[in-house]
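Need the bound structure for nicotinamide-adenine-dinucleotide, inputs here:
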Amino acid sequence: MKNILITGGAGFIGSHVVRHFVNKYPEYRILNLDKLTYAGNLMNLTDIENKPNYVFIKEDICNSEAIAGIFEQYEVDGVIHLAAESHVDRSIMNPMEFVQTNVVGTVSLLNVAKSYWGKRQDVLFYHVSTDEVYGSLDEGGFFYETTSYDPQSPYSASKAASDHFVRAYGNTYHIPFKLSNCSNNYGPNHFPEKLIPLFISNIMENKPLPVYGKGENVRDWLWVKDHATAIDAIFHRGRVGETYNIGGKNEWKNIDLVLLLCSIMDKKLGRPEGTSEKLIQYVTDRPGHDLRYAIDPTKLETELDWHPSVTFEQGLEETVEWYLNNKEWVDTIKSGNYLHYYEAQYGSRIEK
Ligand code: NAD
Ligand code: DAU
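Answer from helper R.:
Posting the output first, comments after.
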């Protein structure tokens, strides 16, 4: 495969995936297609934007006419689909936006691929999904690839629907596909609305840390660059028509994670131990808040010999350092006016 369309490549995970593929596979042409919503940001990719095998296209996955033109023009033979609305709290406030992008957008993209590829079997539609489609665990058990879907939030319902459509198109129209369902990612370039980057940013500004409910919910955290290597392994070596769960066996109760983060921040900022944790405030719980996620990654580990590369402590420390060294990124993102900033810094490269 030579021309790979990565959707959502200007977002958090997408930018790491794009960088990984552009640098590791100079023989591929990597097309980064992104609508640049509030979550998409070309500042995430300035280090690779002039590479000869990289093309950025500002487009909405729902615009099927434009996407069809892109398939034709670039002779797309592989898709890695990450574009989505990704924040659970936003999905609770505005579910329709999630239906539009995550469900309608995915089906629209599948339709274009179906028309352009016809019966070809040397192509691939890879959907990057979430462990939240499996619902919520209590204290025991894990999510396996065979676990029944039981999505609980508008976000996870929209991702579950898109997973079903990918499989349905594979079954009905014989589009070669692969799917992965990953646990919570963390690392550089994470939008400061999600727990870890929000709390780092709030600690830097001495603002309250709003812990939902009692802080007892459990998430299974994975270093974002390890997600990118897992996607690479699955894209190239995973079996067609299969699903792979991705996770690093790294469960943390929210409050324990927040206390660890506070302690790292105190050290990095040279503040007395215990300073940051005074900012913790317990607030009203997220409606329908899933209690626990935990991935069993045995299939990925045994079939594809993929393993995470860092411990959580290493990854979290590196993440904190990145945010401390990239305060301008955080401020620009939070100002909501990053396009203006980007153009002033790097010129008008928004549409190539
Ligand atoms: P993100 O919100 O940081 O980025 C999403 C990207 O998609 C943005 O660049 C945005 O501009 C783009 N986008 C949104 N709507 C679009 C549209 N209509 N057309 C084109 N582009 C559009 O999200 P993320 O956290 O990087 O997640 C990426 C993918 O990985 C999502 O599909 C998400 O469901 C999945 N995922 C995320 C996590 C996680 O922990 N963040 C874990 C597992 C799976
Ligand atoms: O599991 C994978 C999913 O992880 C992805 O599919 C989603 O795209 C991604 O956003 C993430 O969803 P979560 O809801 O788990 O992530 P978030 O960072 O929003 O919240 C993590 C936990 O922290 C969750 O239990 C809610 C809690 N939380 C979150 C925020 C933003 C708080 O206690 N306070 C907060 O302010």
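Comments: Residues 172 and 298 are 29 Å apart (CA to CA). The chain has a mean pLDDT of 95.
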